[in-house]
């Protein structure tokens, strides 16, 4: 069902303000402060710590198949990672992922 | 100084180009998904322009369709964005002395892509003066943000006209994996990524994306600890 406009705009406003506060947090409030070495060390690993965990369930249990593991999508994910490590290029990594997905969907359909 | 500023801006523009090819399908996908959920274009663009956070936008859209309560929608989507507090902290040592409105604008434009580019550039040349660091950051987003808006708009206009077989649903995982994989350079990065995946899956039963938050914190610690361990051995 289509969500009503008031609810959607409330979500948009809340998400916009909340996200800005999160993004502004350290830049805005404690921007002048130096950070301890252990904190900087942990921050180096933030993308590596968040994005794989965000993606893993989407790869294993894709919504498009109702949560059932799907060979085409698993292969596409593997190809994306392997191409990314091998070429060190986001572009080639994406190309390998979508190419494998298209081939896999055609093959397993 | 002049040439330094020009070079910083040019570098930002050039460095952002590979990301555009990733952002176009990602933005279009959100537009299509929003239109298919029955949202008018104004609402789809409201998300995209005011929030600029793809993963959180998809999370909110999904929960809206599930008729989840407002508080749950906001908590879950903001949890997805909590990583940006860490981006904010990572860039603060470099940009913390900028004017308030400049830091506000940086915060509004702080997305995965601009963070990744800026962090890498600042680590490469930590001694660059503040205006050049800002110039580099804003240059990367001067392409990424408009392309993101435009791609979403096109997706929303196309709406349900997209054929079924294209499997656009998987654009999100492919995009995120492609952002991460080229950075898997050391054992510490592998440890962080591995911990993140294992714990996110093991804790996926937890409500409100709390499992992801815990997995991310543990993964950061794993990366940092592995780095310390590798340094001791070296």
Automatic annotation (TrEMBL), chain A:
Pfam families: AzlD
Protein keywords: Membrane, Transmembrane, Transmembrane helix
Superkingdom in the source lineage: Bacteria
Presence of the UniProt keyword Transmembrane in the record: yes
InterPro entries found in the cross-reference section: Brnchd-chn_aa_trnsp_AzlD
TM ranges: 6-30, 42-61, 90-108
Protein's recorded name: AzlD domain-containing protein
Source organism: Mangrovicoccus algicola
Automatic annotation (TrEMBL), chain B:
GO biological process, one term: L-valine transmembrane transport
A Gene Ontology term for the protein's cellular component: plasma membrane
Cellular localization per UniProt: Cell membrane
UniProt KW keywords: Cell membrane, Membrane, Transmembrane, Transmembrane helix, Transport
Database matches in InterPro entries: Brnchd-chn_aa_trnsp_permease (IPR011606)
Membrane topology: Multi-pass membrane protein
Any Pfam family hit: AzlC
Segments passing through the bilayer: 12-32, 44-64, 70-92, 134-154, 166-185, 205-224
Top-rank taxon, per record: Bacteria
Family under the similarity heading: Belongs to the AzlC family.
Protein name (record): AzlC family ABC transporter permease
């Amino acid at each position: 069902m289509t969500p009503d406009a008031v609810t959607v705009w409330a979500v948009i406003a809340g998400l916009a303000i909340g996200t800005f506060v999160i993004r502004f947090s350290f830049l805005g409030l404690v921007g002048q402060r130096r950070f301890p070495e252990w904190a900087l060390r942990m921050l180096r690993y933030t993308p590596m710590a968040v994005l794989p965990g965000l993606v893993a369930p989407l790869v294993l249990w894709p919504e498009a198949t109702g949560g059932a593991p799907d060979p085409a999508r698993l292969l596409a994910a593997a190809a994306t990672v392997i191409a990314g490590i091998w070429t060190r290029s986001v572009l080639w990594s994406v190309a390998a992922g979508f190419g494998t997905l298209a081939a896999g969907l055609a093959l397993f359909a | 100084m002049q040439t330094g500023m020009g070079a910083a801006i040019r570098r930002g523009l050039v460095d952002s180009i590979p990301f555009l090819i990733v952002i176009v399908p990602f933005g279009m996908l959100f537009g299509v998904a929003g239109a298919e959920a029955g949202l008018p274009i104004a609402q789809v663009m409201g998300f995209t322009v005011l929030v600029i956070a793809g993963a959180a936008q998809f999370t909110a859209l999904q929960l809206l369709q599930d008729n989840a309560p407002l508080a749950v929608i906001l908590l879950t989507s903001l949890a997805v964005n909590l990583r940006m507090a860490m981006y904010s902290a990572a860039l603060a040592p470099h940009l913390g002395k900028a004017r308030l409105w400049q830091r506000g604008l940086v915060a509004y434009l702080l997305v995965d892509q601009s963070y990744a580019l800026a962090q890498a550039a600042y680590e490469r040349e930590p001694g660059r003066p503040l205006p050049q660091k800002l110039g580099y950051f804003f240059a990367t987003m001067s392409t990424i943000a408009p392309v993101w808006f435009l791609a979403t708009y096109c997706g929303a206009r196309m709406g349900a006209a997209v054929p079924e077989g294209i499997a656009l649903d998987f654009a999100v995982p492919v995009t995120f994996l492609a952002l991460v994989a080229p950075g898997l350079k050391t054992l510490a990065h592998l440890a962080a990524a591995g911990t993140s995946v294992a714990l996110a899956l093991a804790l996926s039963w937890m409500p409100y994306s709390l499992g992801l938050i815990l997995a991310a914190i543990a993964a950061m610690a794993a990366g940092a600890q592995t780095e310390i361990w590798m340094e001791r051995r070296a």
